[in-house]
């Protein structure tokens, strides 16, 4: 941090890039739900990963303590982030690496492009990375005349298909192997025309295609899963070995990493290396873990760069209720257990970060104010499966509700005309904040009974309630409420029953022993 | 014990039979039930939809209503509403900066139990057939609602109680821990996704061959029952309190989804 600190810091700014919803979630979800093949692929894949995760998690008697440790370490990191970042920078630089600070996607992209150009090349190989997806690095490099080749198999599939990832761990989860075969036949140069959809044959085709790139590339671009402040070490956790190739063969290695990925010390890896593989792929251990600390004489890349990316993270950190979303280690367990994600897939969220974590992270990074982003926190039934699965115990349902509150308040603040939902909520608040008023409202129950007719069910409602009757009936209301029955049977109700403003008369009730 | 019933707004207005079944169970065990008249709603619809400001008077009313009565415990036939009372009420008060209300809400919350918690943990019910005379000779499948399962950690309390009902045949439900898709205003704001979740839930229910789907939350059961009814399914949705309250002399009879209960509590 070479800049001199001048005066009061301004409020942290929101991020930009591929982390902003591009249309309202309900509309996007409706379109994706119409794709039967997608739903079949997703249902099969998420169920498989879910079951694997449950099995390997059950093997660890101290799983809950590990989650607690992961959560506590991350809380500590967030509380000391400026100090840890400077410690990391000092160690990374001392070992021959170069740090570049990027406030947002534009700064990060420009930095990477300049570093690539310095090497006089127009091609880079890439390790799968969420941070570079987030900032739209591939698209930016393409505009600058630099070709970026994804080397993770699933990222390669998505890139060849000119598609977008729909899952943070399994970016091509929405494709089945027949679709993959068709993409390879159509897009992969020099592919065997007799290629079948046998997974081994597909992997072999990709391997042949990629090997040429690994051996010729001068520059690699990666993300990082962890950065260790006490040693200046970076870590990439992967399954295929493509990452190891990219991290060791090219002369220049450029890593782009969000500032929240720091861990204080080497020993903290012990916790996260147990949490991450089990939560993400459902494996006890991932096949390849690469760690590097600056430049090593005679081994690996000669030029080692790290772009430290803010892009809205400081803004998220400033949100007391939402900041724990930055604890995320991108394992994707939350999306694999989410009943909404399982049915809509990742594209419906319009962001690099889909699923439950995306529904909170995207608006935390880029702001709740836009119409499209504001629909994301509602993309959940609040069933809580994500919170249970999260290895670092991010209370996603609570943050979803917090962001819904931000959304409602932000619309209130704009002096907009109240929506149908606003009006319904205000009326309900009035009726439901007094037993007497609810009792009066319940006197209208026989009207509902009348509306239900001889079928004793209501099959069509107007306005926002029409969403209910599109697939569900409503039972005919009862002839009398419980409250009315109780009064009739028991003569009187206990308590006073007046609404707000009535003096309580008694202090807080302590029950009889 | 003197037990204050929190009927919950949906049961009070739409499923009074569930509250009456709850009263019946508790009285059979020899306890006194009171109904604090000021009660209305827990306010979770407002909280979960982001209307914190509108939730405050609802929460304040609930706290006041349950301070106006003397009791040993509060019971509600809903995991979701109890989770709201326990976890959301103090949070809503904190958010609006009312430390007094926060402490009062926490005091009410600490004495509030979901029905199966009260029956199993406090009142020591281990055999519904023997202790309550529960009799329900039907094939039943059970859906554990998310908030009971994940916020209250009810575990198998409701199922244990059902298992000991005389004559019952419990059929296991596939993908039992999956949400039914209700989610309060989620069901109208994201009606398509909610309907897709519901379709999978009702398909799993139908494939059990049960004539009744039961659970501990009338809101989820209204959702599931509403879906079954729309699909023309003969499967009925009943709260587990209604099954526990059913006896040989006064049986609850499944009558097909969403229709009004024709046994105890009908008119």
From TrEMBL, chain A:
Region of interest (Disordered), residue spans: 468-513
Domain of life per record: Bacteria
Ranges of residues in domain LUD: 85-295
Basic and acidic residues composition bias: residue spans: 486-495
Transmembrane domains' residue ranges: none
Name listed for the protein in its UniProt record: Iron-sulfur cluster-binding protein
SUPFAM superfamilies: 4Fe-4S ferredoxins, NagB/RpiA/CoA transferase-like
Lineage of the species this protein comes from: Bacteria, Bacillati, Actinomycetota, Actinomycetes, Micrococcales
Keywords: 4Fe-4S, Electron transport, Iron, Iron-sulfur, Metal-binding, Repeat, Transport
Every 4Fe-4S ferredoxin-type domain range: 325-394
GO molecular function terms noted in the UniProt entry: 4 iron, 4 sulfur cluster binding; metal ion binding
Gene Ontology biological-process annotations: lactate metabolic process
From TrEMBL, chain B:
GO MF, one example: oxidoreductase activity
Gene Ontology cellular component annotations, sorted alphabetically: cytosol
Pfam families tied to this protein: CCG
Residue span(s) of domain Cysteine-rich: 3-85, 140-224
InterPro entries: Cys_rich_dom
Name of this protein: Glycolate oxidase
Species annotation: Zafaria cholistanensis
């Amino acid at each position: 941090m070479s800049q001199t600190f001048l005066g009061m810091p301004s409020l942290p700014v929101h991020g930009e890039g591929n982390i902003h919803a591009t249309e309202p979630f309900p509309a996007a979800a409706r379109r994706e739900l119409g794709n039967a093949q997608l739903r079949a692929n997703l249902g099969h894949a998420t169920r498989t990963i879910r079951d694997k995760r449950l099995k390997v998690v059950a093997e660890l008697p101290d799983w809950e303590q590990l989650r607690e440790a992961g959560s506590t370490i991350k809380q500590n990191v967030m509380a000391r982030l400026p100090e840890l970042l400077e410690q990391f920078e000092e160690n990374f630089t001392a070992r021959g690496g170069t740090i570049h600070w990027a406030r947002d996607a534009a700064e990060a992209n420009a930095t990477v492009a300049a570093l690539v150009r310095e090497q006089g090349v127009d091609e880079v190989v890439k390790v799968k990375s969420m941070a570079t997806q987030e900032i739209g690095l591939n698209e930016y490099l393409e505009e600058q005349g630099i070709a970026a080749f994804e080397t993770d198999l699933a990222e390669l599939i998505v890139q060849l298909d000119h598609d977008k990832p729909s899952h943070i761990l399994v970016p091509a989860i929405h494709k089945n192997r027949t679709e993959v075969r068709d993409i390879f036949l159509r897009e992969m140069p020099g592919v065997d025309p007799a290629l079948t959809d046998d997974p081994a044959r597909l992997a072999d085709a990709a391997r042949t295609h990629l090997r040429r790139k690994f051996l010729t590339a001068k520059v690699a671009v990666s993300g990082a899963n962890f950065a260790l402040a006490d040693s200046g070490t970076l870590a990439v956790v992967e399954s295929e070995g493509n990452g190891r190739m990219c991290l060791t063969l090219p002369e220049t290695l450029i890593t782009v990493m969000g500032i929240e990925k720091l861990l204080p010390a080497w020993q903290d890896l012990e916790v996260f290396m147990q949490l991450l593989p089990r939560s993400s792929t459902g494996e006890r251990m991932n096949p390849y873990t690469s760690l590097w600390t600056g430049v090593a004489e005679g081994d690996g890349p000669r030029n080692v760069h790290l772009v430290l990316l803010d892009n809205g993270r400081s803004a998220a950190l400033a949100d007391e209720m939402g900041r724990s979303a930055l604890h995320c280690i991108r394992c994707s367990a939350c999306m694999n257990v989410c009943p909404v994600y399982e049915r809509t897939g990742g594209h419906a969220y319009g962001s690099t970060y889909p699923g439950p974590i995306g529904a909170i992270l995207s608006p935390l990074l880029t702001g709740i104010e836009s119409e499209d982003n504001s629909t994301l926190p509602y993309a959940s039934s609040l069933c809580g499966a994500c919170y249970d699965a999260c290895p670092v115990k991010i209370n996603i349902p609570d943050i979803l509700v917090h962001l819904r509150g931000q959304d409602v308040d932000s619309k209130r603040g704009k002096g907009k005309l109240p929506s149908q939902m606003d009006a319904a909520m205000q009326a309900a608040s009035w009726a439901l904040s007094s037993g007497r008023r609810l009792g009066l409202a319940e006197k209208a129950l026989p009207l509902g009974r009348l509306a239900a007719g001889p079928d004793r069910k209501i099959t069509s409602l107007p306005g926002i309630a029409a969403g209910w009757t599109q697939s569900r009936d409503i039972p005919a209301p009862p002839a009398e409420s419980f409250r009315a029955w109780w009064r009739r049977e028991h003569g009187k109700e206990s308590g006073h029953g007046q609404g707000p403003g009535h003096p309580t008369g008694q202090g807080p009730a302590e029950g009889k022993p | 014990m003197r037990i204050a019933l929190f009927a919950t707004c949906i049961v009070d207005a739409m499923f009074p039979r569930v509250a009456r079944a709850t009263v019946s169970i508790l009285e059979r065990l020899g306890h006194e039930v009171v109904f604090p008249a000021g009660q209305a709603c827990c306010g979770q619809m407002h909280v979960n939809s982001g209307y914190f400001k509108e939730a405050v008077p609802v929460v304040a009313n609930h706290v006041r209503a349950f301070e106006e009565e003397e009791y040993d415990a509060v019971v509600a036939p809903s995991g979701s509403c109890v989770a709201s009372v326990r976890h959301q009420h103090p949070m809503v008060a904190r958010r609006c900066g009312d430390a007094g209300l926060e402490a009062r809400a926490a005091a009410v919350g600490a004495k509030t139990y979901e029905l199966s918690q009260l029956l199993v943990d406090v009142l020591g019910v281990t055999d519904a057939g023997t202790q309550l005379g529960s009799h329900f000779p039907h094939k039943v499948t059970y859906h554990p609602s998310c908030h009971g399962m994940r916020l209250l950690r009810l575990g198998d309390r409701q199922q244990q109680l059902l298992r000991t009902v005389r004559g019952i045949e419990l059929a296991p439900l596939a993908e039992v821990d999956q949400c039914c898709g209700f989610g309060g205003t989620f069901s109208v704001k994201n009606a398509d996704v909610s309907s897709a979740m519901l379709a999978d839930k009702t398909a799993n229910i139908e494939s059990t061959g049960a004539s009744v789907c039961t659970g501990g939350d009338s809101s989820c059961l209204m959702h599931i029952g509403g879906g079954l009814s729309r699909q023309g399914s003969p499967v009925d949705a009943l709260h587990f309190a209604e099954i526990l309250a059913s006896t040989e002399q006064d049986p609850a009879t499944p009558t097909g989804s969403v229709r009004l209960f024709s046994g105890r509590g009908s008119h």
